[in-house]
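Below is a complete specimen:
___
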Amino acid sequence: MGLNNFSVSGRVGQDSELKFLSQDVCLCEFSFAFDTFKQKQKVSNWIKVKAFGKAAELLSEHAKKGTQLSLSGRLEIDTWEKDGKKFEKTVLVANDFQLPPFMKEPKETDVEF
């Protein structure tokens, strides 16, 4: 069994969308940008973020366009085929997040679920 744990800091690219898949299960989705450096050039990378359950509810309250977040979870590759072409995208299934210190309430601690 392999280890699949990914942590990243960056900014929310679009306001989060909260969907209810059933009475008991909700899903939060949004795009997320983080920077890396390649040959001394800054490169912006985009991934889709998904969260389920309580994590989805909490993220939907905080994940607004431009908000800086630190996210942790597992990576998945979504694949599909359209008109004979195969496509794939990287998705972070988030199970933990933190707001930057300057955005926290005075008595609030890091949000964990």
User: Anything to note?
Assistant: The chain has one helix and six strands. The CA atoms of residues 73 and 94 lie 4 Å apart.
